[in-house]
Amino acid sequence: MNDILAKLNTEQQNPNTVDIDVCSTADILKKINDEDKKIAYVVEEQLPAITSLVDAAFECLKKGGRIIYAGAGTSGRLGILDASECPPTYGVSEDLIQGIIAGGKEAIFRAKEGAEDSKELAKQDLIDRNLGPNDMVVGLAASGRTPYVIGALEYASSIGAQTGSVCCVKDGDISKYAAYPVEVVTGPEAVTGSTRMKAGTAQKMVLNMISTATMIKSGKVFHNFMVDVQPTNHKLEVRACHIIETLGNVDAKRSEELFLEADKNVKVAIVMALSNKSKEEVKIALEKNEGLITKTVESLKEEK
C-alpha cells in the first residue's frame, strides 16, 4: 500500500520547492503562487471530459434527479461547499445539489481520516439520501483511490444512477467506477502530499464548472446575471434591483417597483419589464418555457 501511495502524482516531492522551509515569507508565497498558476491549464486539458460530465448531470436534473458529490477530507468539504452555495445563488432547493462526506457532518469541521476507508459507509450515506436512478453521484478524490468514494460510485451504478468522478492523478482508481471520469493531473504539491493545495484548487475549479454550467443550462442565468438569486438580505435586494434595471432596461425607480410587484422574484420582474405582461401571465409563461427567459419573452411576444 505504501508503494501505491508513493507512486501517486500528488505524493511526489516537488523539485521546485525543496528549499521552501528556509525561504523568506515572500519567497514561500512566490513558490506557492508559481505552482498555483499551473492549475487553470491542467483543468483546460480536461474540458472535453468535464463537458461530458456536465451534459450527463443536466440530463439527470431534467429527469427530476439530483447531483450528489461524494468525498472524504478536503475533497468532501469542497463538494459540500459547492452544493451549499447553489440555493442562495440560483434559487434551487437544498436537495438538488448535495454533498456527502466520509464521517458525516462532524468531518466537515474536524478530520475523521479513518472514515474514508469504508465503502459501506458511503453506501449507507446514499441510502439515507434515497439515491435513485435519476440521480448522479460525482465522486471526488484527489488521490483517485479513496474507498469511500469507490463505494459511493459502486452503489450508484448498482441501482442505475449516473456516475462521474474528479481526481487529480492519471488513471485514478475511481475513474474505473465512473461513466464520466475527469482527471485533472495537478502534479506534486508545494508541500509534499498536501492535496488541499493545488489538488484542492483544481477540484474547486471543476466543481464551480459543474454546478455553474448545469445551472446556466437550467435557466438560472440570463445573459451573465444570476436571475434566480434569493434576495435574503439588503445587499442581495440591491443586487436584485440592479439586475432588473440592467436586464429589463428600466430606470432604478421602476426596477424597485417591479421587484415588489413580482414579490421579489427577480426573473419574473425581468420578464414583466421586457414583455409588459402581468405577474400572473409571466409566471404561467415561465412555467411553460422551463424558466428560460429568452424563450418566455419570445412566446409572450407571439401571443400579441
User: Percent of residues in helical segments?
Assistant: 40-55%
The rounded Rg comes to: 22 Å
- The arrangement of helices and strands along the chain is HHHHEHEHHEHEEHEEHHHHH
User: Mean of residue pLDDT?
Assistant: 94
Instruction: Outline the low-pLDDT stretches.
Output: none
What general form does the structure show?
A: globular
Contiguous helical run count:
14
**Tally of strands:** 7
> What is the distance, rounded to the nearest whole angstrom, between the alpha carbons of the first and last residues?
70 Å
Q: Report the structural category.
A: alpha/beta
User: Which sheet architecture does the biggest sheet show?
Assistant: 5 strands, parallel
Measured by DSSP, the beta-strand proportion falls in: 5-15%
Provide structural commentary.
- This protein is α/β, with parallel strands linked by helices and about 300 residues long.
- The protein has helices at about 1-5, 25-35, 40-45, 45-60, 75-90, 105-110, 120-130, 145-160, 200-215, 235-250, 250-260, 265-275, 280-290, 295-300, and strands at about 65-70, 95-100, 135-140, 160-165, 180-185, 220, 225.
- The strands form two sheets. The chain has a five-stranded parallel beta sheet with strand order 2-1-3-4-5, sandwiched between helices. Strands 6-7 form a two-stranded antiparallel ribbon.
- The longest helix is centred in the C-terminal third of the chain and has 20 residues, at about 200-215.
- It starts with a helix and ends with a helix.
- About 45% of the residues are buried.
